[in-house]
Amino acid sequence: MGAGGAGKKSDKVLTCIRCPRGCRITVALGADGEVEALSGNACPRGDSYARAEVAAPVRMVTTTVPADGARDVARVAVKTAREVPKDAVLDVVRALADVRATAPVEIGDVVARDVAGTGVDIVATSRAR
Amino acid sequence: MRRYDVVVVGGGPAGLAAAVAARAGGRRSVAVIERDDALGGILNQCVHNGFGLVTFGEELTGPEYAARFADAAREAGVEVLLGCMALDVSAGPEGPGVSCVSAEHGVERIGAGAVVLAMGCRERPAGALGIPGFRPAGVYTAGCAQRMVNCEGLLPGREVVILGSGDIGLIMARRLTLEGAHVACVAELMPYSSGLKRNVVQCLDDFGIPLLLSHTVTRVEGRRRVEAVEVSRVDGAGRPVPGTGVRYPCDTLLLSVGLLPENELSRAAGVELSPVTRGPVVDDALMTSVPGIFACGNVLHVHDLVDYVSQEAARAGEFAGAWADGARGSGRTVPVAAGAGVRSVVPQRVDVARMPDELVVRLRVDGVYERRSLVARAGGEVVARRRRDILVPGEMEQVTLRREVLLGLGGVDEITIGLEA
To answer: Disulfide-capable partner of B296 in B4, B11, B136, B316 (CB 3.0 to 4.6 Å)?
Structure first.
């Protein structure tokens, strides 16, 4: 769900998550995806949130993978080492469908490299012994 | 009989923070009793990120946050009793103690200078809702589904409806979507989400999952397995509006309809419980109505953020340790009451002579309010004021009371915290 296609103006509606108010912010995007106008935010924090969110929305992905040979757990928790583009989230979990970890696993161990062509590694967030 | 200065019941985030604080760098002996085979409590199944922003300045996943506190407890020399179930907490003439059972030691009584209750909370179950229809397989609490997916690697179903917008339900909407299930909608009885806004956006909006406010499940279809649920609109009083029902074919219904502090041990110990928070009534030292028994974390009141659990629990651990050393308050506490627009406050009592220089009172409001001030008054005098642009029941608020200000009044009988213009 990136910015609107080049050459076409469009509006995007976002819910700001900077505070519990949750302003609905309408962002008018120009032909090249640049922000032309912004409305609905109650404070400047909404402005900065909306600009960042339409420019390059990113998310952390967290999931679990099987832990082979572990005595204490069936699975280990994992995350992307840093945020990935929001559009790539489903590709990341699909790519992880066949990934397995082998015990022992320590927090921070790399479980998979360059997942789904994002250039981002998958690291363990729990231990397996 | 084994004996420790402080015994903590529960090895989740609250228990671990309390234990480390009570240990005071090795000055006191401290034991944590945990019924599971691992420390960390419910955080171990919360594999999503967003924990620790306040404590560590970074967004950790649940297992990472838990591991930091578990490691800290072990490094501090806290004795950890795993696979050990507390059966009874009491404060007899010989002082407080905990009876527990484990494979290693059988049933035993552990003596303590002070006990910290940190048992956490439990999900409100299906039976508490009274949804019409059969009781087929496929109805789970959100946390149960979370454990199945994240710890056991099992998918509870493929086509899912979620009732209740509690944070675990929202988190599970995303989690199940990422695991290949389809979440048709999240229905919430109230006109606002009970979960954090961040979770509504990142778990529902990101995946196009509708949040139906002022809606509830009015029928469950299916005899052996859930086949469909009917979701209806509700009126201002929360009653379903006839004729508004929409049928969602599905195989799974998840419930995220509230958390209940797990206070069976507290009740049996004679600890006074608040009907509002459903947790113990505590003073500024987080001590319950039973001398020497303290409480913190979700067993005391349900929190939104684990960071605040850790802060609160560390204070409970400090005070429990001080109690074990022999420190006592002035013996006089005054009530802290919930005023206009405020549903609950913790702590509910304050010993003004003994209280810390700054005491954080945590509270929840009873509805959605814009542009109000949280005002604490003692004998009509304003003793604290905090301006808020927006207040919602789903997000815990806080007001800081200053000892100096209260002492300056020369005698306080009651403190009331309410919303004012």
So the answer is: B316
* Alpha carbons B120 and B9: distance in angstroms, whole number: 10
What is the reported pLDDT for B54?
86
Tens digit of pLDDT for each residue in A27-68? 999 988 889 999 999 889 899 989 989 988 889 999 999 999
State the pLDDT at residue B366.
Answer: 94
How many angstroms separate the CA atoms of B243 and B232, rounded?
Answer: 8
Chain B residues whose C-beta is within 8 A of a chain A C-beta are: 37-38, 44, 47-49, 59-64, 67, 149-153, 175, 178-179, 196-198, 200-202, 205-206, 370, 389-392, 394-395
Helix %, strand %, coil % of chain A (to 5)? 20, 35, 45
pLDDT tens string B132-141: 888 899 999 9
Which tens digits make up the pLDDT trace of A107-122? 999 999 999 999 999 9
Q: Please write the tens of the pLDDT for every residue from B2-28.
A: 999 999 999 999 999 999 999 999 999
Distance from CA of A88 to the nearest CA of B (A): 12
Sheet with strand B211-213: strands edge to edge: B139-141, B252-255, B159-163, B182-188, B211-213
- State pTM to two decimals: 0.93
Contact B296, B120 (CB under 8 A): no
> Which residues on chain B are in Cβ contact (under 8 Å) with A126?
44, 47, 61, 63-64, 67
**ipTM here:** 0.91
**Shortest alpha-carbon distance between residue B259 and chain A (Å):** 20
**Chain-chain contact of B151 with A75 (C-beta, under 8 angstroms):** yes
Cβ contact B256:B78 at 8 Å: no
**Inter-chain residue contact B47 with A59, CB threshold 8 Å:** no
Is B318:B285 a contact under the CB 8 Å cutoff? no
> Which residues of chain B carry a pLDDT beneath 70?
none
Q: Do A60 and B201 lie within an 8 Å CB cutoff?
A: no
CB contact under 8 A, A75 and B59: no
- Verify whether the Cβ–Cβ distance B197 to A17 is below 8 Å: yes
CB atoms within 10 A of CB A80: 25
CB contact under 8 A, A15 and B201: yes
Instruction: Residue count of chain A, please give it.
Output: 129
Cis peptide leading into A104, omega within 30 of 0? yes
Taking the CA of residue B205 and the nearest CA in chain A, the distance in Å comes to 9
What is the C-alpha to C-alpha distance for residues B119 and B299, in angstroms, rounded to an integer? 6
The better pLDDT of the pair B72, A20 is held by B72
Contact A15 B197 (CB under 8 A): yes
B200 with A20: CB under 8 angstroms? Answer: no
Confidence of residue A17 (pLDDT cuts 50, 70, 90): confident
Distance from CA of A52 to the nearest CA of B (A): 15
